[in-house]
Amino acid sequence: MLVGSLAILVLAGFVGFTVISKVPNTLHTPLMSGTNAIHGIVLLGGLIVLGLGVEGVLNKILLVIAIAFGTINVVGGFLVTDRMLSMFKAKKPEDGGDK
Amino acid sequence: MTTFIAVLYIISFALFIYGLMGLTGPRTAVRGNWIAAVGMVIAVIATLLTPGMGNWLLIALGVAIGVVVGVPSARKVKMTAMPQMVALFNGVGGGAVALIAWVEFRTTEGYAHEPAYVAIASLFAAIVGSVSFWGSNIAFGKLQELIAGRPITLGKLQQPVNALVLIAAIVLAVVIALGGDAELLMIGLLVAAGVLGVVVVLPIGGADMPVVISLLNALTGLSAAAMGLALDNTALIVAGMIVGASGSILTNLMAKAMNRSIPAIVAGGFGGGTAVSSGGSGEVRPVRSTSASDTAIQMAYANKVVVVPGYGMAVAQAQHVVREMAKLLEAKGITVAYAIHPVAGRMPGHMNVLLAEADVPYEQLKEMDEINSEFAQTDVALVIGANDVTNPAAETDPGSPIYGMPILKVNHSRSVIVLKRGMSSGFAGIDNELFYDAKTSMLFGDAKSSVGEIVEELKAL
């Protein structure tokens, strides 16, 4: 199981390198924001640990906070990225597509 | 059911990767972002389908809090405040990882009964998550100007303190891994890592901030991947690792653009205060100042004008009025381009985002390598609130702290007009030779009102 997980880890790293290294400079801020949203996947960790049952009030409070944090990361991250990117949307060619 | 969940996870990775590929081009980027978001929704749904899930009310509560806090802040944030918003979102992600690791410790009564790799991965996640949370909050505080942007250092004690806190965190991790099950050990570890995040980010100056945020972004990704190993969750491993890899590339790229090494940035020092220009400091040298009407006339008779935006334009929110000025110039048949330095502003691409907000055509934004060869044919270079990225000392003065940093060769153009609030230095805290160049005139004032005056003058011409 561990070896399988490590294999996935290494391969995912290479996928990250190859996909990202092609991004033009101009999109780096949105890209940082987009990858930032993706690591909000930690939300799943909170869901699993809380959903499969924990005892104790403090544990539950901590996990609710963790889920809230993860959700902020995901929802906020994707929305902010979208706001940035929507500014890059292909402009209607002004005055007959001058260049 | 577990197979079904695994299949959903695989679909969500494919969507993450496909979405990120979409982010590589301006035309596909918006869609790419939403594809990744759909991947996230699928991953969440798959997780909720896990057999034996419960505590639905608490889960709903956590998600609801997250949505109520996250959505409005993402909607309302100004484009200039984007870097600190990203820092904050990054921080809460790291915080979530640290909290989960802490709860895991509490529920398993120490990691001694777990396989070694689970203990190591969880401890790594706890340390890195906590560093990322506190570091990001400090970065947010600095960019939001809640804390002084200038480096706050402990002087000679800085390195020993950093090392001490790091060693403390590692020692606590080793003790826990070897079977220490007292909760104070875990709290101590989280606190030590948090202090490490604070002491590492505090001494870093404003100019290095983007690199730090990117580094913390990569770290949060790695901590998520480690958490995935500990929880045996492939979605966390894949998504976390992709972010870790991409963040590392981006961090390296930014550091390179500033001719800085990542270790040097993390060790602190540069970025203001102590740095002094080697040549000609101390003497007061004359600068030529100009007026908005002279600037307007000078540009109106040019063939080619290159706008060089910097953080000053962002602060003054001058991008819309700059666009208006460019339109007036284009109406007179003048070629207008924008020279974008990779680290102008506070994040790579910061200027692109702002100018795109003002509807500047994408084709007019020129990257550094492309525009540098064009300055020789440029009649007027209009520098709006940019400083260090135009400083010729980076090419000519080996004693300068920014020597070797690639710059926009603004001084190659026939004339230069610098819009600036005053003669203060940039984030690197050094004098800019460009301002004393015979070709340079200074137009003092707030960028937005200065450009506004130029627009009025251009209309009157």
Automatic annotation (TrEMBL), chain A:
It is a multi-pass membrane protein. GO terms for cellular component: plasma membrane. The keyword Cytoplasm does not apply. The chain crosses the membrane at residues 37-54, 61-80. It catalyses: NAD(+) + NADPH + H(+)(in) = NADH + NADP(+) + H(+)(out). It comes from the Bacteria. It is found in: Cell inner membrane. GO terms for molecular function: NADP binding; oxidoreductase activity; proton-translocating NAD(P)+ transhydrogenase activity. It is an enzyme of class 7 (translocase). Keywords: Cell inner membrane, Cell membrane, Membrane, NAD, NADP, Oxidoreductase, Translocase, Transmembrane, Transmembrane helix. Its main location: membrane. Residues 6-89 form the NAD(P) transhydrogenase alpha subunit C-terminal domain. GO terms for biological process: NADPH regeneration. Coiled coil: none annotated. Its EC number is 7.1.1.1. The keyword Oxidoreductase applies. The transhydrogenation between NADH and NADP is coupled to respiration and ATP hydrolysis and functions as a proton pump across the membrane. PANTHER family: NAD(P) TRANSHYDROGENASE, PROTON-TRANSLOCATING NAD(P)(+) TRANSHYDROGENASE. This is proton-translocating NAD(P)(+) transhydrogenase. It comes from Amycolatopsis umgeniensis.
